[in-house]
Design a protein that fits this description.
37% of the residues lie in helices and 24% in strands. With 174 residues, the protein is α/β, with parallel strands linked by helices. It has a five-stranded mixed beta sheet. A three-stranded mixed beta sheet has the order 5-8-6. The longest helix has 16 residues, at 15-30. It is globular and about 40 Å long. This is Glycosyl transferase family 2. It comes from Neorhizobium alkalisoli. InterPro entries: Nucleotide-diphossugar_trans.
Length: 174
């Protein structure tokens, strides 16, 4: 049985970052993997809502994570940061994983875009830096009112997908 994917992102004044991530996700929609994209806003004053609308995303300014997760169309969720970009092969890697997997997974960190060795050694990796793919049922069980996506992802270990992701901080650093 084919299972589809709902992508969830949060934003605040990240019009450009949203556009970059959404442009990569289009191929997933064309391939029939991505069923819907939900953008959770934190008071954006830029064109984030227009970018989301133009891409056919659901854009929420007043939201509770429990309601959002329950409303997701896909049986799997991909939590990702605005500005992050899954790399070549991501569709096949995700399709294969959700066909066989039952537990969370994360993209492999980009080998091209990495922090300096010392910074990699001393910093903790934010919970969504490499995205998080998880079954909707598990997300429903974990979701609590007042929680954000990072809170939902925090502490979840994930197997590593074969595809890499360029993290959102790369866009922010430019």
């Amino acid at each position: 049985m084919w299972q589809m994917l709902t992508v969830l992102m949060e934003c605040r004044d990240q019009e450009s970052e949203l556009a970059q991530t959404l442009s990569v996700l289009v191929s997933g929609a064309v391939e029939g993997l991505v069923s819907d994209v939900i953008i959770l806003d934190h008071g954006s004053q830029d064109g984030s809502s227009r970018v989301a609308d133009a891409a056919g995303c659901r854009f929420h300014v007043d939201w509770d994570i429990k309601d959002i997760v329950a409303s997701a169309r896909g049986e799997w969720l991909l939590l990702i940061e605005a500005g992050a970009r899954p790399q070549a092969g991501w569709i096949d890697a995700v399709m294969e994983y959700i066909a066989l997997g039952r537990s969370p997974a994360r993209f492999a960190p980009s080998r091209t875009y990495r922090k300096a060795l010392f910074k990699r050694l001393v910093r903790s990796v934010p919970p969504l830096e490499n995205g998080l793919l998880l079954p909707k049922g598990q997300a429903i069980a974990l979701a609590r009112s007042g929680m954000d996506l990072a809170g939902l992802a925090r502490g979840l270990k994930g197997l590593k997908l074969s595809s890499e992701i360029v993290p959102a901080w790369v866009v922010a650093a430019r």
